[in-house]
Amino acid sequence: MSPLTAIVTGASDGLGKSFALELASRKINLVLVSLPASGLPELADYILKNFELKVTIFEADLTVAESCTSLFDFLKNSGLTAHILINNAGLGNWSWFGDKNPGFYKKQIELNVIAPVLLTHLFLAQLDEERTAYLLNVGSLAGKFVVPKKQVYGATKSFISYFTRCLQLEMENANISISLLSPGGINTKPELLALNHKLKGIAKATITEPNRVAYEAIHGMFLGKREIIPGGINKLMVLLNSILPQFIKAIIIKSKLKPVIKM
Ligand SMILES: NC(=O)c1ccc[n+]([C@@H]2O[C@H](COP(=O)([O-])OP(=O)(O)OC[C@H]3O[C@@H](n4cnc5c(N)ncnc54)[C@H](OP(=O)(O)O)[C@@H]3O)[C@@H](O)[C@H]2O)c1
User: Hey, what's the signal peptide range on this chain (predicted)?
Assistant: First the structure.
């Protein structure tokens, strides 16, 4: 059978880059998508030198809806069918609602919500029904817990969670495996590293490394897991979240995140 081809959005950095390397180590051909001038050609070169597979890059701003259509037109014209879609590109923040301008939130919703919906629709439409396909949507624990300074971001991730779970139900009998990744904090960039460093105890223990998250996510996706929550503490937190009353959760979250909420 010919090798699988995976689209990874937001592949130039952070978790997306780790996804690209994890898939490359499994000899899966790659279509890497990110903003122009974000280092995709360099990443593709590195992968081509170190792994035997095909790498295609597509540089585009996914907050522009037409970019999603252009990506699939480009794949069609290149004779490529994608078997895996990883909706990873996302814009996070850690700020009081009033501290960001409306344009920021619009962009966040376009990238975290609209792009994954459009890409998923286009991806499903081009599938070869004979071959098992995989969809991995990157959510967040922020979509499960109501956390101050994560108001719009958390809501976009709740959307991703609902969207993914609903598709799982709708497509139960189709030849596709649909997974939701719900990670806690990931040390993907220096500013997050600095922020995560301030956390203590359980809050600190929820933080994971991108390579580990990518490994667990791809492993879980191929096993057909419906939801992948990297890290034992994070799984426990999600369990507690389903049991504890809202006011107790609010007290715990405020006390555990005190060092970063104050900032
Ligand atoms: N980091 C965490 O703590 C954490 C926790 C839970 C969930 N997540 C989720 O995990 C995913 C990846 O997060 P991350 O921390 O790895 O993010 P990141 O380091 O900021 O990387 C995001 C990637 O998306 C690309 N990107 C940004 N805007 C784009 C646009 N308009 N069009 C196309 N590509 C764009 C970025 O390109 P540039 O390099 O050019 O900016 C980068 O490659 C996100 O969905 C995030 O919500 C992250």
Answer: none
Å from CA of 102 to ligand 1 middle: 20
Amino acid 109 reads I
Domain coverage including residue 93: 5-261
Which tokens belong to 163?
A: 């969207």
* Contact between residue 167 and residue 120 where contact means Cβ atoms under 8 Å apart: yes
Best substitution site from 7, 8, 9, 13 to test ligand 1's pocket, by max atoms within 8 Å of Cβ?
13
- Which CATH number goes with the domain that contains 223? 3.40.50.720
pLDDT at 261: 67
Q: Is the CB of 208 under 6 A from ligand 1?
A: no
Q: E-assigned strands of 10-161? A: 29-34, 55-59, 84-87, 133-138
> How do residues 1-25 score in pLDDT, each as one tens digit?
889 999 999 999 999 999 999 999 9
Give me the sheet containing 133-138, strands edge to edge: 55-59, 29-34, 5-9, 84-87, 133-138, 176-181, 227-228
pTM of the predicted model as reported, rounded to 2 decimal places: 0.95
Q: What is the spatial distance between Cα 2 and Cα 80, in angstroms, rounded to a whole number?
A: 12
Tell how strand 133-138 and strand 5-9 pair up.
unpaired
* Segment 196-255, tens digit of pLDDT: 888 877 778 889 999 999 999 999 999 999 999 999 999 998 998 889 888 887 887 777
Number of domains within the chain: 1
Strands 176-181 and 133-138, by their bridges, are parallel
Indicate if ligand 1 lies below 6 Å from the C-beta of 227.
no
